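ok so i was messing around last nite and threw this chain in just to see what happens. nothing serious, just curious
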Amino acid sequence: AAPAGAATGALEAPAAAGQANGTAGSESEWPWQCPVVHTQQGFNLSAYMGTWYIQMQAPTAYLPESANNCVSATYRMLSPPTFPWRYTVGIRNLAYENDGTVRDSGDFLAAYQRGLFDPAKLAVAPKFLPKFFAGDYWVIAFNEDEGYALVSGGQPYIKTDKGCKTGEGVNNAGLWIFTRKQQRDDIIVYKVRNIAFEAGFDINVLNNVNQTGCPAIP
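result:
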């Protein structure tokens, strides 16, 4: 669960590091049964900055299916980095519950590039926490020209009969389809779903996000 008093939104990595360990049916938590996921080659972090609209996402502890409305994530480079932990990306996540309740992370979250030789491997945490507590945030695919990104909460480690998935807890959790445009484009969404499928993800974990009738990002 998110830390007490924290406003939560998509792609958070709060203090309580951990994994969702619940499995069902034919699922098994043997990571070696899952193919190694590769991230976007030649990833350009600066180009990735700005606002993204989530079109599909897997449930997590901090963003259940009831909050699949008007979900967005906005990123900005931090110069200088935060003190003392030197996070380099500021994050603001926004989502709405079915009853209209707002989930807004404000300026609570930050990220840094964890992969020295893999710039698409980032990690996210509340900016006041040491990097040890940060949760994986991997950009599996990113195309600025076509306006899409596929993001995973790290390496999937739960084998299902449809592929592999991350957990549903806080860290090591989540799968998201981002688009630059808020209006859904089913062709792009289908393309990114297929990228996830080809990478070995169980895409059945993805649920649609309603992006219609949304208020402007305040």
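not much to say yet. The helical segments are 45-48, 186-198.
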